[in-house]
């Protein structure tokens, strides 16, 4: 028997009216379900009633709007992860202290020169570590970033590793002057950044898709790893449960954290990735996780957003096109296809901020033609 769609309510039509504005800002929203996570703050600011799912246990945002999500049935309780190489299920006890607003969270990511083939005992070659210290009350209060000398690359795998690097973060395997410290030194510096509180190490979070790689690298870099790694999706679920007494779906939480709107925001990527206009940056991935949580949960917890919560100077709520907001393809790879277009419009170089200059050129042409 096919699923029956629920009745469309006021929030559905509010989101539908916001859809063209979000699309003009370059956000990847094609349908109402895509825009759900991006409209809750505007809905709260408008003075309307809470969103339909807020305060109603077990109600999913998409299904509350009469939208079929296609998700399968799942067991009750917190989001569980059963796939190989995924983080373990959330423990029965809470990782949150009673004063949730002041809780300190550390978001961590470790990039590598690709995953080594199965004949090699070593699975990854760590090359970049990013970490941020965050709370709902104060936003990002400190950040940590280091490049790591990967050491000796297994014979026969150098070309494989460099090809994987070129496809994403583009960090060279050898001869990279910024990666002048080996993993033991970098790990000690990371431990100094994530300091124990009253003798206990605070929990560290990363996205579930990155958990296996990050956890493997932590164990490989230390004889006895001190950091306990958890999935940030479980954290978001628990933050919602603590305030609204309801559990959002795993699909909705994953989509919430998988956005591109801050890819080109200032002070997000490390200096090297910023100067070379490369999106894949370990520090940026941690900061964007913090931005997503701030953008969605600040209104829920009654927190006023600051520049420590979001890059507000880049958050343009008008109808103007922001050339820094660029929607990438589904594979999240930069496809350098616009050299011909730039040459067609009289540009002579594609180095630097090629995408930004392309959009600025198109916007200028649009304005001149309208005049």
Q: How would you summarize the topology of this molecule?
A:
Layout: H1 10-24, H2 32-45, H3 61-64, E1 105-115, E2 124-135, E3 139-147, H4 158-167, H5 183-193, E4 204-206, H6 208-221, E5 229-231, H7 232-244, H8 250-257, H9 271-275, H10 282-301, H11 339-344, H12 354-370
Parallel strand pairs: 1-4, 4-5
Antiparallel strand pairs: 1-2, 2-3
* Structure annotation, total helices: 12
Overall mean pLDDT stands at: 74
CATH class categorisation of the largest domain: Alpha Beta
What's the shape?
globular
Secondary structure category:
alpha/beta
Helix content estimate: 25-40%
The beta-strand count equals 5
CATH topology of the largest domain: Nucleotidyltransferase, domain 5
Which segments are poorly predicted (pLDDT under 50) over 5 or more consecutive residues?
65-84, 316-352
What is the number of independent domains?
A: 3
Percent of residues in beta strands? 5-15%
Lateral strand order in the biggest sheet: 3-2-1-4-5
GO cellular component, one term: P granule
Family: Belongs to the maelstrom family.
GO molecular function: sequence-specific DNA binding
Subcellular location: Cytoplasm; Nucleus
């Amino acid at each position: 028997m096919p699923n029956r769609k629920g009745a469309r309510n006021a929030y559905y039509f509010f989101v539908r009216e916001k859809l063209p504005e979000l699309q003009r800002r370059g956000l990847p929203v094609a349908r109402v379900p895509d825009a759900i996570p991006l409209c809750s703050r505007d809905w709260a600011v408008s003075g309307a009633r809470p969103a339909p799912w807020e305060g109603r246990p077990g109600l999913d945002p998409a299904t509350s709007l009469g939208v079929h999500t296609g998700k399968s049935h799942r067991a009750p309780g917190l989001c569980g992860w059963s796939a190989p190489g995924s983080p373990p299920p959330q423990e029965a006890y809470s990782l949150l202290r009673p004063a949730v607003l002041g809780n300190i969270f550390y978001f961590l990511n470790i990039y590598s020169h690709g995953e080594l083939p199965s004949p090699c005992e070593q699975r990854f070659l760590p090359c970049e570590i990013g970490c941020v210290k965050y709370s709902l009350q104060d936003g990002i209060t400190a950040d940590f970033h280091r490049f790591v000398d990967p050491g000796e690359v297994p014979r026969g795998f150098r070309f494989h590793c460099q090809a994987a690097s070129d496809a994403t973060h583009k960090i060279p395997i050898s001869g990279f002057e910024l990666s002048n410290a080996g993993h033991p030194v970098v790990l000690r510096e990371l431990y100094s950044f994530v300091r124990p509180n009253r003798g206990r190490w605070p929990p560290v979070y990363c996205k579930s898709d990155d958990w296996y790689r990050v956890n493997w690298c932590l164990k490989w870099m230390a004889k006895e790893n001190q950091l306990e790694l958890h999935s940030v999706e479980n954290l978001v679920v628990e933050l919602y449960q603590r305030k609204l007494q309801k559990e959002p779906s795993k699909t909705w939480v994953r989509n919430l954290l998988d956005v591109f709107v801050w890819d080109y925001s200032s002070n997000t990527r490390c200096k090297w990735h910023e100067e070379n206009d490369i999106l894949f940056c370990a520090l940026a991935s941690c900061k964007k996780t913090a931005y997503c949580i701030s953008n969605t949960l600040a209104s829920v917890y009654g927190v006023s957003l600051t520049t420590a919560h979001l890059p507000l100077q880049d958050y343009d709520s008008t109808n103007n096109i922001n050339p820094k907001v660029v929607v990438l393809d589904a594979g999240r790879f930069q496809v350098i296809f616009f050299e011909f277009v730039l040459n067609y419009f009289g540009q002579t170089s594609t180095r630097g901020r090629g995408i930004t200059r392309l959009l600025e050129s198109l916007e200028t042409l649009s304005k001149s033609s309208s005049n």
